[in-house]
User: Fold this.
Amino acid sequence: MKTGSSHIRSLQDGRKVFIDGAEAGDVTVHPAFRNAVRSAASLYDFQADPAHAELMTIESPTSGGRVNRTWALPTSYADLVERRRAMEAWAGTHYGFMGRSPDHVASCFAGMMMGREVFDAYDPARAAALADYFAYARDNDLFLTYVIINPQADRSKAASGQADPFLTAGIVDEDSQGITLRGAKMLATSGIMANEVFVSCIQPLGAGDENYAISLALPMNAPGLKLLSRKSYEAAAPSQFDNPLASRFDENDAVIYFDDVKVPWDRIFVARDTAMMMKQFHATPAHVLQNYQCQVRLMVKMRFLMGIARRIAETNGIIGLPPVRDMLGQLAAEAALVDGMVHGMEAKGHQHGPYFVPDSHLLYAAQVLTQQLYAKIINSLRDLAGGGLIMLPSNVADFANPEIAAIIAKTQQSPVVGSEDRVKFFKLAWDAIGSEFASRHSQYEMFYAGAGFVTRAHSFRSYDWAGSTALVDDLLSSYSLKDSEHIQQAAE
Assistant:
């Protein structure tokens, strides 16, 4: 079974990562990434723990080894629930703050395999490549990320209409061995600590964009593949006491640049078919299954934020005030909305051939609502905490200075905890809702599923409009103008 130490070793593969103007080298020891790498590795230690292995893992049907349950293809409601329980347990280890944990893209591939007939109809050779890769990724329990968004550049133009035809990663050459890829893709969240990357496009492509219609997988150390990291919040976190979340769970985001990267045909699932780009996600359960995982993670994160809210009220001694209880009741209802919709997706699930799939419209409805809800909840927590989030000691080192520590003891008071515990808690609260790390999470929760108009479009297309309009039509058909005339005459 894969463990944390084996995952860390797998990342020492010579991958090209750039940050702060230089090549990072070994990401497992670099101060910008090492703690997040350990957090990712701890997921595999958690699943390998005998206390969790039965829930977290399944037996691979090909290798016989134990691999994470997210690779399972659920065939029943019970299977789906068990899969969710495993994802829920994993999310609990990072409190929902690792949005691109290994179960996300694995869920995408599981969904594509559940709709393999779509790939068979497109090209049997590409379908076989997908099936072989899925078995390989599953049997090695790979940590996969993906890049499925194009660089923004001129957003009024298609990928083929940009000034540089290889701004967006596209096919620059093709031969009997495979294709050569040149250009950039976004956002490789967790790419620094992933084993491989799924490269595709979830944005609409049209005529002229055929070279950008690709779906393939590559190891992160493929020759010519370069990762350009954003600023590291982990590197900017002075200590775990001051930034308990940023110091451990900064999963990182990166642009990937493909500098004429050769991709063999056995790693290519779609090539130059713009229609198949959408089909791989939406004609199969892939998009539903991967975003269902997101909602499970968010459900856990909401529970954590509710804990922050309650502790703010308790620490400040205001838990008994009616307006505070009113606010907490509202927050609790909003958190329960996410929880209920996750369970509803399962209860309303349906068969897709031999497989059991979560309900798509409840999923997309949840995405629409939670994109709006997350910012509202963060603002409510800020309102509840007031200035307590800001007026904190500058650094854990302040406690080592007796003069400063004495002032902290007088000014950081709470009716229920000591000054050190009060500072410790409010440092955590700030890291969750106010720090630069927290701001990145607010942006992430707003846009990981796409812009609001995208999720609302998914909600529109997946709703049972026929059932709703049938109710209206049924009532309309139950009376007529002639019926009204008879009633009027009888009344006269």
